[in-house]
Amino acid sequence: MLASDLSLARSAPWRDKLSLLLESTGDGMCGIDLEGRCIFANRAAGRLLGREPEAMLGCNMHALMHHTHADGSHYCIDDCPIFRAFWQGQACRIDSEVLWRVDGSSFPAEYSSYPIVEDGAVCGAVVTFVDISDRKRAEALLRETNADLERRVADRTRELTEALAQLRELSAHAHAVREDERTRIAREIHDELGSLLVALKLDVDWMARRVTTEPLQHKCRSMGGLIDGAVDEVGRIITDLRPSLLDHQGLLAALEWQFQEFAGATDLACDWHLSLEPGTSIDDNDACATAVFRIFQEVLSNIARHARAQCVGVEVKGSAQGLRIVVSDDGVGAAGTAFAAPRAYGVRGMRERARHFGGDVEISSAPGAGTRVVLTVPWTPAT
Question: What Gene Ontology molecular function terms does this protein carry (predicted)?
C-alpha cells in the first residue's frame, strides 16, 4: 500500500466523525467557497431553511437565505457580513437580522461566519446559524413588561406627586387659617380685654385719689400693680399670637425683634448681621413673610430647648431673587439622621412650609459641632 493510500485510509474515520458531529448539532451549519456557493450543509441547516441539504450545494447562499432585510428592502451582497468573512478575513457574529426559508417566510436568526484558511490563504467560510424566534419573543415580552412597569411607576409617581401637592396645599391652607385665627384673637384681646383693663386701671386710680386711709390706699396701689402686670401679660400674649411689628414695620424688623427677644430670654452671646443687595424688594404683607417669621421662631425655639449653646449667630441676606437666613450655634449638635427622622415633626413642618413657597430648609449638624440651619425663600411664591 502506498503511503498516500495509508494516509487516506487513516483520515477516513476522522471524516466520518466530523460528518457525525455536523449532523448531530442543532445549529445550522454550511460552508461557502470564494464565490459564495454552498460546499456543504448539515441537516439542521436544511431544516431551518426548508430545503434538503443536497439541494443547497452549489447555490449562492446570500441569494438563498440572506437576500432581503426584515423590512422587505433588498440586502446588497456587498454589505453581507457573512461574505466579509472570506472577502476581508473578518469573522462576525450577528443577532439582529433575519434569514429566509424556501417558502418566502423569514425568522430572526443569530449567525456567525468565520473564514476558512488553508496554506495562509482564505478559501471560504463556515457559517453557523440558529433560529432565535423564542428568544426574540421573550425579549419583546420583557420589553413590553418593562414598558408597562415604567408606565405604572410613572402613573403612580404622578399620583403621589399630585397627592403631595394637595397635601402641601392643605397644610398651607391650615397655616393660613391658623394665622388668620391668631390675628383675629389678638385683635379681639387687644380691643376688648385691653380696653377693659385700661378702664379698670383708670377706676382704681380714681379710687386711690379719693380714699384717705392707708390700708385702702395700699390696696389700690396693689390692685394697680396687678392691673399693670395683666396689661403686660396681655401684650405678650398678643405679640405671641401675631407680632404687630410684622404688620406695621415689616419682616426684617420682626426678625430682628424676635432675635433680640431670644437673646434677652436666653442670655446667650448673640450676633445679628443683615445685608441687602441693590434691588431687594420685600413683600411684608403676604403669607410668605409670615411663613419665614414662623420658621425663624421655630429655629430659635429649638436652639433654646435642645442646643445647650453658648453663642448663636444669625445672618440675613436679601437680594432681588429672594431671602437667605442662616442660623448657626455652637451647641451639642446632633447626627444628620436625627433631622430626617419620621418623628422630627418640627423640622418636617419647617421644610414643608418653606417648600410651599418654593424655598427650602437645609440643616447641617454633627455631635459636638453645633448646628447650622439655612432657610432660602424666593420672592415669588411657588404654589
Answer: phosphorelay sensor kinase activity; protein dimerization activity
Assess contact for 298 and 340: CB atoms under 8 A.
no
Domain that residue 188 falls in: 158-220
When divided into structural domains, the chain yields a total of 3
What gap in Å lies between CA 192 and CA 200, rounded to an integer? 12
Task: Enumerate residue ranges in the chain where pLDDT < 50.
Answer: 1-15, 381-383
* 11 within a domain of the structure (yes/no): no
**Gap between the Cα atoms of 244 and 349, Å rounded:** 24
Spatial CA neighbour of 75 closest among 83, 377, 144: 83
Query: Given CA atoms 15, 20, 25, 26 in this order, what sign does their dihedral have?
Result: positive
279 and 343 assigned to the same domain: yes
> Which cell numbers hold the place of 265?
430670654
Using alpha carbons only, what angle is made at residue 11 by residues 7 and 14, rounded to the nearest 5 degrees?
Answer: 165
How many angstroms separate the CA atoms of 234 and 26, rounded? Answer: 95
pLDDT for 207 equals 87
Q: Is the pTM of this model over 0.70?
A: no
Same domain, yes or no: 273 and 355:
yes
